Amino acid sequence: MIKVVLFDVDGVLVDSFRAGHQFLIDVLKAMGYPAPTKEVFKTAFHLPLVPALKHLTKSELTEELERLHEIVDRVHYHTELLSEYPYTKEMLEILSHNYRLGIITSRNTDGLTKRYYPFAQTRSLFSVAITRDDVTHYKPHPEPLLLAAKKLRVKPSECVYVGDSNTDIEAGKAAGMKTIMYGGRRNKDADATTSSFKKLPSLIKALH
């Protein structure tokens, strides 16, 4: 029986592609690197900040990482570029009546509390939030998902994880959870696929 629904943030709860792209452009510019195109940025969109920067620059960034916190604190994150997917808030409220909800994100805690929550106004709906600051291993490793289940005192098999990347589905499967691929992508290992938040309640019910 499904008791918990866990969500990725970027690409699922919020469309942050434009904001994330601009943020990395500004960070890389401050570090002396050229701006990535949108196509190149897509390859790093789901990575935590440091792995994303290493991937985009093809460098270990040994010296630059020493002043990364200073750079990130100085760079403005354009929350005005964030947008919601249709029916997100309404469906979260409906789901919260039957399930406990949680967040699994590669953002750090500040990125979640200072950027996503103020934008979405949904913080009260979530019983747990696991960020990259809470774990040693990031997705596709199952550690973040297993930690969420542990905090909520449920079995992994009683959870559904909704993500928008192959990394999300791999992490969910490794954790022993049901998975739903959200957005336009297909993944043969996902238990269900949808591009509409309105369909989530019925899809989750069918996974019981």
Automatic annotation (TrEMBL):
Gene3D superfamilies in UniProt: HAD superfamily/HAD-like, Putative phosphatase, domain 2
One cellular component term from this protein's GO annotations in UniProt: cytosol
Record-linked Pfam families: HAD_2
PANTHER family with a match to the protein in the record: PHOSPHOGLYCOLATE PHOSPHATASE
Listed GO MF terms: phosphoglycolate phosphatase activity
Protein name per UniProt: HAD family hydrolase
Source organism of the structure: Candidatus Taylorbacteria bacterium CG11_big_fil_rev_8_21_14_0_20_46_11
BP GO terms, sorted: DNA repair
Superkingdom per UniProt: Bacteria
InterPro entries assigned: HAD-like_hydrolase_sf, HAD-like_sf, HAD-SF_hydro_IA, HAD_2, HAD_sf, PGP-like_dom2
